[in-house]
Amino acid sequence: MGASTAAKGLPAIGVAEEERIFVATQWQLMWWKFRKHKLAMLGGIVTILIYLVAIFAEFLSPVRANAIGIGYRHGHSALIHCCK
């Protein structure tokens, strides 16, 4: 089959490589294609980092989620002023 792909203008690959492609699962084929795309890899890394920050948000936060500042304990709520 290597000769037929070369005749079509595609790069010739070895028999072992063709065998590897024919027995690969869909996930393997997608991963091989995804791994070659640099922008997709960058997007995947950024997505993983966002998920990690979301998972560990409580640990990474500088203050507790239920902490209340002492100086704002008796403060009034902000009033909305409308222009005339």
SSE order? HHHHH
Which regions have little confidence, pLDDT < 50, spanning 5+ residues?
A: none
**How many H/I helical runs?**
5
Computed CA radius of gyration, to the nearest angstrom: 28 Å
Shape: elongated
Helix content: 55-70%
Fraction of residues in β-strands = under 5%
| Major sheet description | none
- Structural class, from secondary structure content? mainly alpha
Distance between the termini: 81 Å
What is the number of independent domains? 1
Mean pLDDT: 80
Task: Report the strand count.
Answer: 0
Write the layout of secondary structure elements.
Blueprint: H1 2-7, H2 15-23, H3 26-36, H4 38-55, H5 57-60
Q: What features would you highlight for this structure?
A:
84 residues, mainly alpha, 5 helices
Can you give a write-up of this model?
- By secondary structure, the chain is an all-alpha fold.
- The protein has one domain.
- The protein has helices spanning 2-7, 15-23, 26-36, 38-55, 57-60.
- The longest helix has 18 residues, at 38-55.
- The radius of gyration is 28 Å and the shape is elongated.
- The model has no long low-confidence stretch (mean pLDDT 80).
How do you describe this structure in short?
With 84 residues, the protein is mainly alpha-helical. The protein contains 5 helices and no strands.
